[in-house]
C-alpha cells in the first residue's frame, strides 16, 4: 500500500486494512502534512522506498493523494507487471476549496484534480468510499476536461467508470463498545464531532443553536475537535453565547474521552457542504446519536429508506428538523441507529475488501 499522507483517517484506514485483511499488506508511507507537496512529490519519495525493498508484491494499492502515473514511471523496471488499484478517500476535483487558498486566486487549483484524473486512468481498478463520491467525480470529469483546448480525451471518463467500484470506508467501530454509557442529561445533548473548518459550515450549525436558545428550547452541547489559529471565528462566538449549554468544548485528549462524550450525546445535526463518506457521522450513529443530516453528499447512503424522511432535511430546514428531534427525543431514541452503520466495521467489511483485492489482475 502506498500512502503519502499517513495520518488521521488515512492512517486509521490503512492500518485497519493491514490488521484485518487475510492478505499480507506492507505500507509504504510519508508523514501526513503538506498535502499539496505530497501530491506533487510523494510519488518520487515512495518510488525510492519501493525500489529499495526486496518485496515483489502481487498488487500495488495507492490512495488518492498519490500521483500514481509518476510512481509507475519511476518504478517501471520493477512494477511493470504488477496490477494496480487506487482508493479514493477524497478527490481534488469536487472538493470545495477554501476561498482563502492562494492557488485558487492564482488559478493553480486544476493541477491536483488532474493528478487524480491521470491516476484513476492508469490504475487497473478504482475504488471510491461511497456511491456519491464515485458519481460526483465521474460526473464532474467531462466539464473539467472540457476547459482544455483540444485532445480532451473525454472518452476516458467511461474507461474509468467501467473499472470503478464502491468499497465503503472500513472503520474500527467496535472499539466504541466498551465506553458505552447509560448516563443521560436532563435535556437532549447536541453533538459536534467534526473538524473545525469552513467546509463543515459551522456558521450554519451554531446560528441554528443561537436561534433555538433565543426561542427557549432547552438543550446541552458537546463540541469536540481541535482548536487552532485558523478556525472560523464563529467558534469563539459560540463558546461565549452558549456557555450555559456547554458540557464539553474542544479536543478530547484520548480516544476513551472522545468515545464517552459521543456515547453521552443524543443528536448530531450536520451542516457540512463536503463529505465523501462521513466518518465522524458514522461514529456518532454507531453510538446511537440521532442523525439530522442534509439531503446531499454521502449522507443518504447511511440511512434506511424508512428513516430518510425523519433524518434528512432540505436546505433551510435544519432548525425545524432539529427542534422536532428535541421535542420527540424519547421516541427517536428508540431507533437502533447503530444497526445502520455497523456494516462499516472491519469485522463485517473485510471480506468484501479481500475479495475485491483478490480479483484484480
Task: Give a structural overview.
- By secondary structure, the protein is of the alpha/beta class.
- The protein has 17 helices and twelve strands.
- The chain has helices at 8-20, 35-51, 68-74, 76-79, 102-105, 110-122, 131-146, 156-162, 202-214, 234-241, 255-264, 279-286, 308-311, 318-327, 329-332, 338-341, 346-358; strands at 2-6, 28-31, 60-63, 84-88, 125-128, 164-166, 189-192, 220-224, 246-250, 267-269, 290-294, 312-313.
- Strands 3-4-5-6 form a four-stranded parallel beta sheet. A three-stranded parallel beta sheet has the order 7-8-9, with helices on one face. The protein has a three-stranded parallel beta sheet with strand order 10-11-12, with helices on both faces.
- Helix 2 packs parallel to helix 3 (68-74), helix 7 (131-146) runs antiparallel to helix 8 and helix 9 packs parallel to helix 10 (234-241).
- It starts with a strand and ends with a helix.
- The mean pLDDT is 95.
Amino acid at each position: 500500500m502506498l500512502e503519502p499522507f499517513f495520518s488521521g483517517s488515512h492512517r486509521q484506514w490503512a492500518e485497519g486494512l493491514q490488521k484485518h485483511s487475510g492478505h499480507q499488506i506492507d505500507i509504504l508511507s510519508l508523514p501526513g502534512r503538506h498535502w499539496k507537496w505530497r501530491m506533487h512529490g510523494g510519488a518520487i519519495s515512495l518510488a525510492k522506498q519501493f525500489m529499495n525493498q526486496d518485496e515483489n508484491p502481487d498488487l500495488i494499492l495507492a490512495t488518492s493523494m498519490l500521483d500514481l502515473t509518476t510512481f509507475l514511471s519511476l518504478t517501471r523496471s520493477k512494477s511493470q507487471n504488477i496490477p494496480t488499484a487506487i482508493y479514493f478517500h477524497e478527490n481534488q476535483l469536487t472538493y470545495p476549496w477554501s476561498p482563502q487558498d492562494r492557488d485558487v486566486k492564482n488559478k493553480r487549483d486544476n493541477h491536483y484534480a488532474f493528478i487524480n484524473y491521470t491516476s484513476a486512468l492508469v490504475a487497473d481498478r478504482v475504488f471510491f468510499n461511497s456511491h456519491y463520491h464515485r458519481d460526483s467525480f465521474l460526473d464532474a470529469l467531462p466539464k473539467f476536461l472540457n476547459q482544455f483546448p483540444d485532445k480532451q480525451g473525454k472518452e476516458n471518463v467511461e474507461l474509468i467508470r467501467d473499472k470503478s467500484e464502491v468499497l465503503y470506508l472500513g472503520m474500527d467501530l467496535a472499539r466504541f463498545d466498551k465506553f458505552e454509557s447509560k448516563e443521560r442529561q436532563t435535556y437532549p445533548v447536541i453533538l459536534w464531532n467534526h473538524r473545525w473548518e469552513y467546509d463543515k459550515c459551522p456558521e450554519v450549525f451554531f446560528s441554528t443553536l443561537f436561534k433555538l436558545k433565543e426561542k427557549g428550547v432547552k438543550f446541552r452541547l458537546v463540541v469536540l475537535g481541535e482548536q487552532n489559529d485558523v478556525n472560523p471565528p464563529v467558534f469563539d462566538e459560540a463558546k461565549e453565547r452558549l456557555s450555559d449549554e456547554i458540557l464539553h468544548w474542544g479536543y478530547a485528549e484520548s480516544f476513551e474521552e472522545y468515545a464517552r462524550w459521543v456515547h453521552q450525546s443524543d443528536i448530531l445535526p450536520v451542516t457540512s457542504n463536503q463529505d465523501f463518506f462521513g466518518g465522524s457521522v458514522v461514529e456518532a450513529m454507531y453510538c446511537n446519536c440521532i442523525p439530522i443530516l442534509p439531503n446531499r453528499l454521502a449522507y443518504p447512503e447511511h440511512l434506511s429508506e424508512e428513516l430518510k424522511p425523519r433524518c434528512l432535511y432540505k436546505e433551510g430546514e435544519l432548525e425545524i428538523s432539529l427542534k422536532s428531534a428535541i421535542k420527540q427525543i424519547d421516541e427517536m431514541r428508540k431507533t437502533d441507529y447503530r444497526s445502520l452503520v455497523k456494516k462499516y466495521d472491519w469485522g463485517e467489511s473485510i471480506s468484501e475488501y479481500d475479495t475485491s483485492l483478490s480479483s484484480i489482475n
